[in-house]
Design a protein that fits this description.
Elements: E1 2-6, H1 16-26, E2 33-36, E3 42-43, H2 47-53, E4 60-64, H3 70-83
Antiparallel strand pairs: 1-4, 2-3, 2-4
Length: 87
Amino acid sequence: MQRSVVVALPEGLHARPAAQFVATAGRLPVKVTIAKTGGTPVATASILAIMTLGVGAGDEVVLATADDDADAAASIDVLEQFLQQSA
């Protein structure tokens, strides 16, 4: 299962938002990866990997998981909501 999301966070996934994103992902029942569109996916559990993506506001990312069930959908929903915060 995967979903494309446009990042609305004003500062993108840098420093503090990346740390909060990793903490949020760590509480989910399913492992999810994130990648810039067309890029190599990285684990949402790794703050360093996420920061190396260089995701900024307005960038499109792909959230993906190997699972295809209700937990996977709910996990992706939570991360999508995080990325779509505009303030």
